[in-house]
Design brief:
This protein is of the alpha+beta class. Helix content is about 30%, strand content about 35%.
Length: about 100
């Protein structure tokens, strides 16, 4: 009997999720002013975006200091997108899920 373990981190690509959070703010007529992201989230984001940057995101759109043309500030907890009118769009990090498949 063989077992296969699969670990899912969140719900899809982190860069795509954050991009959609910015789009959501724009659709609500909020002007994104500052990303407040944790260091670990930023590391995952940069690693993911750099592996596909040439084909997916325009050059300079995802950097260590700016994300989707909005400056980044590192925080210890509660990542979010802060807009000019102090509207906050929280980013909820989903805990990893572990799936075990026996065959």
């Amino acid at each position: 009997m063989r077992s296969l373990i699969r670990i899912d981190f969140g719900d899809g690509d982190v860069a795509e999720q954050l991009f959609m959070l910015k789009i959501c703010a724009l659709k609500n007529d909020d002007v994104p002013a500052l990303w407040r992201l944790t260091e670990s989230l930023m590391e995952v984001l940069i690693a993911t975006a750099r592996s596909e940057r040439d084909s997916r995101w325009p050059r300079g759109y995802v950097t260590d200091y700016r994300l989707f043309d909005v400056p980044v500030d590192l925080v210890r907890e509660l990542p979010h997108l802060l807009c000019e009118n102090y509207m906050i769009y929280p980013y909820t990090v989903q805990p990893p899920r572990i799936w075990r498949h026996d065959s």
